[in-house]
Automatic annotation (TrEMBL):
One of its GO terms (biological process) is DNA replication. GO terms for molecular function: ATP binding. It comes from Candidatus Mediterraneibacter stercoravium. It comes from the Bacteria. Residues 182-327 form the AAA+ ATPase domain. This is ATP-binding protein. Keywords: ATP-binding, Nucleotide-binding. Pfam families: IstB_IS21. NCBIfam families: PRK06835.1.
């Protein structure tokens, strides 16, 4: 889905390491057994010699060679098993040691990705997303609607914080469920501490669980990367990250307006959101700015793109961080 070639090869290299590790363990165990049970090595040598002999017979047209070979091999293998267990080794001691027995550390079962491969994809996407910087508890399962008061009203619409958040949650889940099929963008705005970043992180986790690539940046981080790429063409890491900013399945720009804004930043912001719109790559933006301030800081062109191509979601309510601190004090 959202896996780049470099990401795919990174995962496959990990599988190669697992296979090498398994091979090394098995080799070491064989050496241990050979040292402790010399007869075991002799039986292995006999099996090798026998296989070559019967191979020649098959080439010479001996049709009974396969049946005879199977009988003799069965006897030798039974003898090996008896030697192994009588020496105190587990019966499966010389079997390959796989981290995933289902795919035997190949990542695939037939032509289908193994469940362990899917876990590896999600792990890699998390590591590259910057989401790990956000609170661990940022998950819809932990979302508390009770933080949004039914008696806290928006002066313009007359709707309560609870009503607004209930609708917002519904839109967020629609965004997640349709991701990869419908092209959508979200714009969260409202005062400090009402849960905009938390919502973005919740969505990001859900999207990555579906194996799409997500990239999270605070606005200052994002513009630092874009500036570094612009002013230092030799910075390979910044250039790669710059490419990923434009190509990832979901880009999250958090706390827009917290950066120092000038004409360069405004231009970079427009380029970023416009390119992603052109390539139908979804973006979530959160800000403490009002829509009026947004237009003043980032030009009419950016404002036009956002108001026409994003679902605008105003969130109101008390500062949740303050409420959590008060709850914590009461508990102690």
């Amino acid at each position: 889905m959202g896996l780049r070639n470099s990401q795919y090869y990174a995962i496959m290299r990990e599988y190669e390491k697992k296979q090498l590790k398994s091979h090394d363990i098995q080799t070491a165990r064989y050496e241990e057994v050979y040292q402790k049970i010399p007869e075991f090595k002799s039986l292995d040598d006999s099996i090798s010699i026998l296989s070559v002999q019967y191979g020649k017979k098959l080439l010479n047209g001996d049709d009974k060679a396969i049946a005879s070979l199977k009988e003799e091999l069965a006897i030798l293998r039974s003898s090996k098993q008896s030697l192994l267990t009588s020496a105190g080794f587990p019966a499966d001691y010389l079997e390959p040691v796989y981290e995933c027995k289902d795919c035997k550390d190949t990542g695939y079962i037939g032509n289908q990705k193994c469940h362990c491969f899917r876990k590896a994809i999600i792990k890699l996407l998390y590591e590259e997303s910057n989401i790990l910087e956000l609170p661990v508890e940022a998950d819809f399962k932990n979302f508390r609607l009770d933080f949004y008061s039914p008696s806290y009203y928006d002066k313009k619409t007359g709707r309560s914080a609870r009503e607004i958040m209930e609708d917002t949650l519904q839109i967020c889940h629609q965004f997640i469920d349709s991701f990869g099929k419908d092209f959508r963008n979200l714009f969260f705005y409202g005062s400090v501490g009402v849960g905009k970043t938390y919502l973005s992180a919740c969505i990001a986790r859900e999207i990555m669980e579906r194996e799409f690539s997500v990239l999270y940046f605070s606005a200052p981080q994002l513009f630092n990367v874009l500036a570094q790429t612009t002013f230092d063409k030799k910075d390979v890491d910044s250039r790669n990250m710059n490419d990923y900013i434009f190509s990832c399945d979901l880009l999250i720009i958090d706390d827009l307006g917290s950066e120092y804004t000038n004409s360069f930043i405004a231009s970079q912001f427009f380029t970023c959101i416009n390119e992603r719109l052109l390539h139908k790559k979804s973006t979530i933006i959160s800000t403490n700015l009002s829509l009026e301030s947004l237009a003043d800081l980032y030009t009419e062109r950016s404002f036009s793109r956002i108001t026409s191509s994003y679902t605008l979601l105003k969130i109101i309510g008390d500062d949740i961080r303050i409420r959590k601190k008060l709850e914590h004090r009461e508990d102690h």
